[in-house]
Amino acid sequence: ETGVTQTPRHLVMGMTNKKSLKCEQHLGHNAMYWYKQSAKKPLELMFVYNFKEQTENNSVPSRFSPECPNSSHLFLHLHTLQPEDSALYLCASSIADTQYFGPGTRLTVL
Amino acid sequence: GIQVEQSPPDLILQEGANSTLRCNFSDSVNNLQWFHQNPWGQLINLFYIPSGTKQNGRLSATTVATERYSLLYISSSQTTDSGVYFCAVERSGGYQKVTFGIGTKLQVIP
Questions:
Q1: Torsion angle of C-alpha atoms A69, A75, A78, A83, degrees rounded to 10
Q2: Among the listed ranges A71-75, A81-85, B94-98, B100-104, which one has the minimum average pLDDT value?
Q3: How far is B83 from chain A (nearest CA, A)?
Q4: In terms of Cα–Cα distance, which of A68, A77, A69 is closest to A105?
Q5: Which tens digit of pLDDT belongs to each residue from A48-104?
Q6: Closest residue of chain B to A42, computed from CA coordinates
Q7: Which of A14, A31, A44, B69 has the fewest beta carbons closer than 10 A?
Q8: Is A98–B48 a contact, with Cβ atoms under 8 angstroms apart?
């Protein structure tokens, strides 16, 4: 247990669906992140929020839409995804030098 | 961007054996972390070590920043050490542009 929770843990969706991933931390961390982990590829940083403000968007397609309503919660809204978007989506939070990861959401796009 | 190479890509150990995992990076860094991802996908930070040596139980890590590499040592390996070990670096402080290596997949057999 790292103190970072993610829901749902597994998600299967069609290409026309809209769904959201949720991340929550009550560690007092001021930064939160979304990562994508695909098979045989390094973790890819998608979005970074510092104090609820988005500070990084690594050229992520607009079908992924992040939302950070407060420093404890982070959402990733999904719509019209493609099968190649199937992956493990990891949330992390940090303060100072160390990142703490959630357990991930295993997403399958049919 | 910065390149991160990890070796070996795969490693099989007999329980009780020792091993060394290596991370090479192509430019100077401010942050370097080692992570372990268990077979269920949970990433746990092991060390924050931009330079120097740290030890935590059976694990230790050394980063030689001037030569742009870091080593993770696992002694007296156990089956619970199985999983993927990632090195992650960041140049400018914080985790705004963190880069992960592709990982070393370790299997410890009884």
A1: 160
A2: B94-98
A3: 14
A4: A77
A5: 998 777 777 778 999 999 999 998 999 999 999 999 999 999 999 998 778 899 999
A6: B102
A7: A14
A8: yes
